[in-house]
Specification:
The complex is a heterodimer.
Chain A lengths: L1 H8 L3 H38 L15 H11 L10 H17 L18 H22 L3 H32 L4 H6 L20 H14 L11 H4 L9 H26 L17 H22 L5 H32 L2
Helix pairs in contact in A: 1-2, 2-10, 2-11, 3-10, 4-5, 4-10, 5-6, 6-8, 6-12, 8-10, 10-11
Chain B lengths: L1 H22 L3 H21 L3 H25 L4 H34 L18 H12 L1 H22 L11 H6 L2 H4 L14
Helix pairs in contact in B: 1-2, 2-3, 5-6
The chains are: A mainly alpha, B mainly alpha.
């Protein structure tokens, strides 16, 4: 699009790039908001179906407009700031959560060449941006000046920092295998990982499959979805860090949380299951646009997330920490050694 | 043009955030300003083409170190009145350090104006087309391998040292034994009885 503004309309390169980037951001962010609204509806429907209930079915046909009705409702509510709260940080926390959930999407490739920022440190950018997500939660807990949000913030911070370590090592195995930090190149490297049945995706590689499982579970912990939703464990912490929030500040947390969930599903699809490549490297499957394959994989993983939420009981906090530090960290660290050893043997021949 | 705007934006915010870090009353606000300063410094790194360093700055400092700072600062019981009396005590040291830094910056600026330093030769010439994450990797894992490993080793020793210093054996606690909890079956904990009517079960 930069070329279009630059050569067809005749803007100088800098301004053409600026305009193209702004349009790119809008093209990603606005449909994302719509997707978040629909995915909340899907989550509630899946959850209801597994509990043999109907779920949202009143607003609009099949209840499709439920999320928009909820959005309108919170938009019209009054924003309440507790008297003892730290006003500035209290209002900034949901904005940080929401913004951080959006900025990671800049490096996600939707189809060959369709990516806002095709940078060669893409995966590091994802790690950097996801490590910022914890600030929104810590700040909301502290600024609320209330004990349950504060407990929740402490839990969230410990949980996210712990699981980021495991995620980092899992990403290193992927980077070692694909030889690049660029997400588009990682997707390209997943073409036909098996010689006999040419399936696309590192997850089909038996060596990397355990890492795909570790990543999926760590993604649940990182987004604080059930069974790791101890930060908003309603039986002990009221509503966790969002207890004191109302109106749009509450809605921003909600939107940011679900945008993060979609992001983690997309990353799962991109890093382990071939991104915009079809599952099998077979010519007719390439007739379907890459973005549809990506969305299909993303929705599948979202279904898995909802499925887990509906069926698995919540972990105890010590079990959560044990899983992160005593199981996933040694396992993923060992896998880094294993993957580099195998790569040395096959590619370098030592 | 856009680069210049971005540079002045980032640079101005770094300076402003740095000033606010030392002048804001609330320590939590100080840490937040510090994070803003880190973040904009990362932006400056991106502008000079060191994207790997920028990402490391955000991951390590913003994502890990500053979270720990924030944790510690939030846990403190802050007494604002006492904080203000301490300012007078440490003002002399602070001003001295500030003056030292200002002089250093001035010397650097004069030295820079008088022409650049001629390096003898570059020990490891880098292909300009190579992304800097690869260039750093090549350098660290070939030429500076032993130094790099030594740095890693020192960090490992420091970590073990910290664990040894802070670890203490707790007695009298009853920790969760997860494998025993998992191994426990319904038969071990419950019993199915059929008591005669009117007699109940034994306690």
């Amino acid at each position: 699009m930069t070329d279009f503004f630059n050569s067809t309309i005749g803007l100088p390169y800098g301004w053409a790039w600026f305009l193209a980037t702004i349009i790119g951001i809008l093209v990603i962010a606005l449909p994302l908001m719509l997707a978040v609204a629909m995915i909340i509806y899907a989550d509630r429907k899946i959850w209801a179906a597994m509990a043999l209930r109907r779920g949202p079915n009143v607003v609009g046909p099949l209840g499709l407009l439920q999320s928009f009705a909820d959005g309108l409702k919170v938009f019209l509510q009054e924003t309440i700031v507790p008297a003892a709260a730290n006003r500035g940080l209290f209002l900034m926390a949901p904005i940080i959560t929401f913004t951080v959930a959006l900025i990671v999407w800049a490096v996600v490739p939707f189809a060959p060449g369709v990516v806002l920022a095709d940078i060669n440190v893409g995966l590091l950018y994802v790690l950097a941006a996801s490590s910022l997500g914890v600030y929104g939660i810590i700040l909301s807990g502290w600024a609320s000046n209330s004990k349950y949000p504060f407990y929740s913030a402490l839990r969230a911070a410990a949980q996210m920092v712990s699981y980021e370590v495991a995620i980092g090592f899992v990403l290193i195995s992927v980077v070692l295998w694909s030889g690049s930090f660029n997400l588009s190149k990682i997707v390209e490297a997943q073409r036909a990982v098996w010689p006999i049945i040419p399936v696309n995706g590192f997850g089909f590689n038996p060596l990397l499959f355990p890492m795909a499982v570790v990543f999926l579970i760590s993604a649940l912990a990182e987004t604080q979805r059930a069974p790791f939703d101890l930060t908003e464990a309603e039986s002990e912490l009221v509503a966790g860090y969002q207890t004191e929030y109302s109106s749009m500040s509450f809605a921003l947390f909600w939107l940011g949380e679900y945008a993060n969930v979609i992001l983690m599903c997309t990353l799962n699809a991109t890093l382990f299951w071939g991104g915009w490549l079809p599952p099998v490297d077979w010519a007719p499957l390439y007739l379907v646009p890459g973005i549809i394959w990506l969305f299909a994989k993303m929705l599948f993983f979202f279904f898995v997330f909802s499925w887990i939420k509906a069926t698995v009981p919540r972990y105890r906090y010590d079990q959560l920490m044990r899983l992160g530090w005593k199981v996933f960290l040694p396992l993923s660290l060992f896998w880094v050694f294993l993957v580099s050893g195998v790569l040395m043997y096959y590619r370098v021949g030592i | 043009m856009i680069q210049a705007i971005a540079f002045y934006l980032f640079a101005a915010i770094v300076i402003l955030a740095g000033a606010m870090t030392i002048s804001s009353r609330n320590p939590v606000h100080s840490v937040m300003w510090l994070i803003l300063a880190f973040f904009n410094a990362a932006g400056l790194m991106v502008l000079v083409g060191a994207e790997f360093i920028a990402m490391l700055l955000v991951i390590v400092y913003v994502g890990a170190v500053a979270v720990l700072f924030l944790f510690v600062v939030m846990m403190m019981d802050i007494d604002f009145a006492q904080l203000r009396t301490e300012v007078a005590r440490y003002a002399a040291i602070g001003l001295g350090l500030g003056a030292l830094l200002a002089v250093e910056v001035m010397i650097a600026a004069f030295a820079w104006n008088s022409g650049k330093v001629h390096l003898g030769r570059r020990v490891a010439p880098i292909d300009p087309a190579m992304p800097n994450i690869q260039a750093l990797g090549h350098l660290l894992y070939s030429r500076y391998l032993f130094l790099f490993e030594a740095a890693g080793f020192i960090l490992l020793v420091a970590m073990i040292g910290a664990i040894v210093l802070t670890h203490r054996e707790r007695t009298g606690t009853r920790p969760q034994n997860v494998s025993r909890q998992v191994a426990r079956r319904p038969e071990d904990a419950t019993r199915n009885v059929k008591p005669p009517v009117g007699q109940g079960v034994e306690l």
